[in-house]
Amino acid sequence: MKLIDGKKISEKVLDEIKLSVQNRIKNNLKVPHLAAILVGDDGASKTYVNSKIKACKKVGFKSSLFNFDDSISEIDLINQIEKINKNDDIDGFIVQLPLPKHIDQDNILNMISPAKDVDGFHPNNYGRMTLGLESFIPATPAGIIELIERSEIKTEGKKCLVIGRSQIVGRPISILMSQNKSFGNSTVTVAHSRSKDLKKLCLDSDIIISAIGIPEFIKGNMIKKGTSIIDVGITRVEDLSSPKGYRIVGDVDFKSVSNNVEYITPVPGGVGPMTISMLLKNTLKACKISD
Length: 291
Ligand code: GUN
Fold this sequence. Notes:
By secondary structure, the chain is α/β, with parallel strands linked by helices. It has two domains: 28-128, Leucine Dehydrogenase, chain A, domain 1 (Rossmann fold); 139-273, NAD(P)-binding Rossmann-like Domain (Rossmann fold). The protein contains ten helices and eleven strands. β5, α7 (170-178) and β6 form a beta-alpha-beta unit. α1 runs parallel beside α10 (272-289) and α6 (139-150) crosses α7. The longest helix is centred in the N-terminal third of the chain and has 21 residues, at 6-26. The structure holds guanine. Residues 94-97, 119, 139 line the site of guanine.
């Protein structure tokens, strides 16, 4: 079993970004600037946004946080987005999700300028990604690609099972794994809540990318020897022996599969740490495009 250390790989990516920023400063080029819009005061969203801002400081980016009350109307939020779209100092920005129920998420994401859409959620970027054109790839699938490439896991001709079809993870990674490029070229199956006989599908796969959020669902008897697993699941389960009263587990029963897997990402410390470094990588890219 080879463990894919997402924390270490993420640090490496952040170091590379930091070096690029230092080189830009030496060459009198603009320092990348990421902005985040946070609506309301949901604890988890605040934590995520703060981690993104902290990572910006670490690599030398400028960052801005726009925090709006959860009573903000959709039209006022759109006006704020348009202001940021026009602000030449900001290279990329994100609207932290989820949004309050009275705001239509699709209307909001559609208002973000595609050139600043470093989350890659705008239909322009999503469509371009699907067509294999240059685009901003959403952070989680981009992080999965980075982990697979840096671990030198071969994808060409492999049978890859993606479990989950969400817009943020399952759908885009299934497209990217099947693309006709040096990364991809796999035979991809997308399984979801209506799929039959998941065990059979798992046993038939060389690579499994799981993003269903069912804790420790994939067991050792569901995979063949030599399978590589990317575990995107992050679920809190009660654990009274932990000081926090819970622990974070993935979709994979790590102990149970450990004798059969070739490569595996741990949870926590696998895909999770990659998402912020990929967001910053997209921001650097947006900044370079606007040079
Ligand atoms: N909420 C949970 N994940 C994400 C993400 O990747 N981007 C944004 N904007 N919001 C999120």
